[in-house]
C-alpha cells in the first residue's frame, strides 16, 4: 500500500489559483463507466496531465494531487482502476483493493487512461498531454506511451518495471523514471528498464534517482524527505516544459 488516509499531496514550488475541480465519471472504449477527479488552474493552460494511482485506485491522495497539479498551472485528472469490478465509489482505507487487483487487465487500464487523455484534450484544448503514475501506476504510465495517445511524455514514480517491459519497443514518447533508492524495487532493475527503453524504442529517457528516499516518498506527511519532494516537483515541471509542443 502506498498512501494512508493521513497522506497529503505535496504542493508545487509555486502555487497559482485553483480553478474548477471535482469528481467526474468517464466512459472507456468498452462502455465501462469509471470514476475520476479533475482539477483546472484558474488560467487556461496548454499542458495537461493524467494521474494513474497506486494499486488502491482513486484514493483521496490523488484527488489532492490533481489539485496540486492545477495549482502548478496544468489541467489534471486522476482516474480509478476498478470500475469493472467495484463500480464507482470511494477508495478509502477499508477498500479491499487486493481482491480487485486480481481482476486488473493492463489493456483495459490503458483504454481507461486513453479515455482520460481524450477527455482532457476535448475539454481543455491542451496541446501537450502527459501521464504520471505511482507504484503499479508508474508502470502503467510507462506502458501508456505505447498506447497510441500521442503523449508528450510519461512519468513513473517508484514504478515496478516488469509490467512495462513487453511494451518497451513500442514506447513512442519521452520517459521520466523517478527511482527511490530505498524502494523495495531494486534500483538496478529500474535503471535496466530505462536502458532497455532507450535501446529498443529510441526515445528520450531521463532517469532520476533519489538515493535516500523510500517508496511513496512523494508525500507531504514525510517531512524528512522535503528536499526530495521539492526536487521531484522541479524535475517533473522541467520534463513537461522540455517536451511540450511549442505554441
Please supply descriptive tags for the structure shown above.
single chain, 247 residues, alpha/beta, Rossmann fold, 2 domains, 8-stranded mixed sheet, 7 helices, globular, carboxymethylenebutenolidase activity, Dienelactn_hydro, AB_hydrolase_fold
Give me the secondary-structure topology.
Blueprint: E1 18-27, E2 33-41, E3 47-52, H1 60-71, E4 75-79, H2 83-86, H3 97-101, H4 106-124, E5 128-134, H5 136-144, E6 153-157, E7 175-182, H6 187-201, E8 205-214, H7 226-243
Parallel strand pairs: 3-4, 3-5, 5-6, 6-7, 7-8
Antiparallel strand pairs: 1-2, 2-4
Fold and architecture overview:
This protein has helices at 60-71, 83-86, 97-101, 106-124, 136-144, 187-201, 226-243; strands at 18-27, 33-41, 47-52, 75-79, 128-134, 153-157, 175-182, 205-214. With 247 residues, the chain is α/β, with parallel strands linked by helices. α6 links the parallel β7 (175-182) and β8. It is built from seven helices and eight strands; from the N terminus they run βββαβαααβαββαβα. It is globular. The protein has an eight-stranded mixed beta sheet with strand order 1-2-4-3-5-6-7-8, with helices on both faces. It folds into two domains: 16-126, 3-Layer(aba) Sandwich (Rossmann fold), CATH 3.40.50; 133-247, Rossmann fold, CATH 3.40.50.
Amino acid at each position: 500500500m502506498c498512501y494512508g488516509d493521513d497522506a497529503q499531496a505535496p504542493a508545487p514550488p509555486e502555487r497559482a489559483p485553483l480553478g474548477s475541480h471535482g469528481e467526474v465519471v468517464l466512459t472507456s472504449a468498452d462502455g465501462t463507466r469509471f470514476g475520476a477527479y479533475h482539477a483546472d488552474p484558474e488560467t487556461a493552460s496548454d499542458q495537461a496531465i493524467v494521474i494513474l494511482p497506486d494499486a488502491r485506485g482513486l484514493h483521496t491522495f490523488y484527488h489532492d494531487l490533481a489539485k496540486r497539479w492545477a495549482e502548478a498551472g496544468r489541467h489534471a485528472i486522476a482516474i480509478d482502476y476498478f470500475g469493472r469490478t467495484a463500480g464507482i465509489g470511494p477508495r478509502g482505507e477499508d477498500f479491499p483493493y487486493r481482491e480487485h487487483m486480481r481482476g486488473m487487465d493492463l489493456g483495459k487500464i490503458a483504454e481507461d487512461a486513453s479515455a482520460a487523455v481524450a477527455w482532457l484534450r476535448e475539454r481543455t484544448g491542451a496541446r501537450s498531454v502527459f501521464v504520471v503514475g505511482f507504484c503499479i501506476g508508474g508502470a502503467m504510465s510507462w506502458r501508456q506511451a505505447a498506447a497510441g495517445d500521442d503523449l508528450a511524455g510519461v512519468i513513473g514514480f517508484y514504478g515496478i518495471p516488469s509490467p512495462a517491459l513487453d511494451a518497451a519497443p513500442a514506447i513512442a514518447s519521452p520517459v521520466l523514471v523517478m527511482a527511490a533508492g530505498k524502494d523495495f524495487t531494486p534500483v538496478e532493475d529500474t535503471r535496466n528498464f530505462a536502458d532497455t527503453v532507450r535501446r529498443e524504442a529510441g526515445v528520450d529517457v531521463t532517469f532520476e534517482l533519489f538515493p535516500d528516499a523510500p517508496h511513496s516518498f512523494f508525500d507531504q506527511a514525510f517531512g524528512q524527505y522535503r528536499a526530495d519532494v521539492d526536487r521531484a516537483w522541479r524535475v517533473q515541471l522541467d520534463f513537461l516544459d522540455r517536451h511540450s509542443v511549442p505554441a
